[in-house]
Amino acid sequence: MLTNQKDFFNLPDDITYLNCSYMSPMLRSVAEVGARCLYGKDDPTSVKPEDFFKNTSALRTEFAKLINAGSEKNCAIVPSVSYALANVAKNLKAGKGDNIVIADEQFPSNVYAWKELEKEKGIELKYVAAPKVKEGRGKAWNESILEAIDPNTKMVATGHVHWADGTKFNLKAIRKRADEVGAILVIDGTQSIGALPFDVQEFRPDAVVASGYKWLMGPYATGVAYFGEYFRDGRPIENNWMNRLNSEDFRNLINYQDEYQPGSIRYEVGESANFILTPMLTRAIQQVNEWGPENIQAYCKNLTAPYLKELKEMGIQVEDADYRGEHLLGLRLPEQMDIETVRKNFEAQRIFVSIRGNSIRVSPHLYNSEIDLQRLVDSFRVKTMT
């Protein structure tokens, strides 16, 4: 069982940070790697040709281990979710009369790519909204998604958990239904991978992407992706030299290659060897692998359980445990509780969470303690009723 890991971070002592879903704090070990790499170019002769490929291989290897992808060659380094999903959009086999099923109110990066297909190819987007019910919301939402998938569906695009409120989607059931109609499954794992166990062999997604600066504990402008068999022979959105076969041989780079590197590496962003950010994200995912997402879930569950009970007693709605992660909680306020007053209480007490409409997104991690959760609960008790 993991204990509190706050000493691994440089978080200020005078804040209560329950907002990893916004941006993770920097790990000390990742900052050390970044500082060391920042000065690595002082002597450019220290950077060898093979280092370009060692850097990328190390990162892909850690990510493949995290999601059980089988091989690092099934993974690719990307700068953002939008970059990876642009590759998906370019290679999706669909046209007029087909549809894409998406959970409604997803993060825009997992919508805009498909809206372009809607305009360019006449593909219908089927938005599945969350049901307006107080009980069994997560269960009903999952059922609605399954019902929306029909013989004309070519892709289901969703997260493992909803980015705004933590509702967990039943990826095994969605995969099964997608198989029945011949659709692919594309996952934005930004708000789950690193904190919630994700197994490629179990869920069998066709593509997965995760930004590096949230639950993967890495720097901004970094990310990693997985592309399955559906995309094995696809065309990437850019053509950079490292993605081509035999690029490790610098002496023969002008012997231009039509073939790509094996697996998913063809979808990798140019300059993926980034000698500062790539080693930082590698170290970050190494740490996540050392902790284990299942242990992070257990820590967050044990930490929050007694306080969630108190919140529910105040009338605050929390999704059923079967339909949410333990690391990302959506708190829906009762009508008599004023959201603006709650927000001001948070600000005055330096409690950092995310507010989405009349819902509060709370996302703890290993650096949080019982004191943080008690401060959160107490903030709802102070003059919040209208």
Helices and strands in order:
Blueprint: E1 16-17, H1 28-38, H2 49-67, E2 75-78, H3 81-91, E3 99-103, H4 109-121, E4 124-128, H5 137-148, E5 153-159, H6 171-181, E6 184-188, H7 200-203, E7 207-211, E8 223-227, H8 277-291, H9 293-313, E9 317-318, E10 329-332, H10 339-349, E11 351-352, E12 354-356, E13 359-362, H11 370-381
Parallel strand pairs: 1-11, 3-4, 3-5, 5-6, 6-7
Antiparallel strand pairs: 2-8, 7-8, 9-10, 10-13, 12-13
Helix pairs in contact: 1-8, 2-8, 3-4, 9-11, 10-11
Broad structural category: alpha/beta
Order of helices and strands: EHHEHEHEHEHEHEEHHEEHEEEH
Q: Helical region count?
A: 11
- What is the typical, i.e. mean, pLDDT? 95
Work out the strand percent: 5-15%
Q: Order of strands side by side in the largest beta sheet?
A: 2-8-7-6-5-3-4
CATH superfamily grouping of the largest domain: Type I PLP-dependent aspartate aminotransferase-like (Major domain)
Distance between the termini: 42 Å
User: CATH fold name of the largest domain, please?
Assistant: Aspartate Aminotransferase, domain 2
Portion of residues in helices?
25-40%
